[in-house]
């Protein structure tokens, strides 16, 4: 008789089976893209007076590689535009909405230490999640938390 007590968690990309969560993630992605695009346009306007060789020196130059940000509704893929500085003065666009190296929202960062203090270290993970999420914690969040380590 095999005594296997290892439980397999669903992968986070399989959590999209919930249509409402999928819709929320899609809306979050579009909202982030619009906010970052507005930031970029404002940045380009502020630097439009800088010229190099008779042309604008600060220009749009594609996107950084797509990355995922962990949020309360799961991971949301984002693409951040980048700019090119032809003048060589070192101008660089950094979004305030999605700063460089942001991997998860502050709500997730605040949740992890709280879960730890609530009893995750003693194996009372299910009770800690139920106190936050109600009776049916989502597997998506379990995967997210399993991949994260509490600060401290």
- Please work out how many helical segments DSSP would assign: 4
Distance between the termini: 41 Å
Main sheet: strand order: 1-2
Average pLDDT over all residues: 75
Total strands: the figure is: 6
Proportion of helical residues: 25-40%
Can you summarize the main beta sheet?
A: 2 strands, antiparallel
SSE topology string: HEEEEEEHHH
Structural class assignment: alpha+beta
Oligomer: single chain
Low-pLDDT segments: 9-16, 136-145
Describe the structure.
This protein is an alpha+beta fold and 152 residues long. It contains 4 helices and 6 strands; from the N terminus they run αββββββααα. The strands form 3 sheets. The protein has a two-stranded antiparallel ribbon with strand order 1-2. Strands 3-6 form a two-stranded antiparallel sheet. It has a two-stranded antiparallel sheet with strand order 4-5. Strand 1 (51-52) and strand 2 (55-56) form a beta hairpin. The relative contact order is 0.15.
Describe the structure using short key phrases.
single chain; 152 residues; alpha+beta; two-stranded antiparallel sheet; 39% helix; elongated
């Amino acid at each position: 008789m095999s005594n296997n007590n290892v439980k397999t968690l669903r992968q986070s990309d399989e959590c999209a089976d919930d249509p409402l969560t999928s819709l929320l993630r899609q809306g979050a992605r579009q909202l982030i893209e619009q906010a970052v695009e507005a930031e970029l346009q404002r940045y380009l306007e502020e630097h439009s007076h800088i010229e190099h060789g008779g042309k604008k020196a600060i220009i749009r130059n594609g996107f950084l590689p797509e990355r995922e940000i962990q949020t309360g509704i799961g991971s949301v893929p984002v693409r951040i535009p980048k700019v090119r500085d032809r003048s060589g003065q070192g101008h660089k666009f950094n979004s305030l909405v999605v700063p460089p190296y942001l991997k998860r929202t502050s709500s997730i960062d605040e949740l992890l230490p709280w879960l730890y203090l609530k009893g995750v270290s003693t194996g009372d993970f299910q009770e800690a999640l139920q106190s936050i999420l109600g009776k049916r914690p989502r597997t998506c969040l379990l995967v997210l938390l399993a991949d994260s380590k509490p600060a401290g």
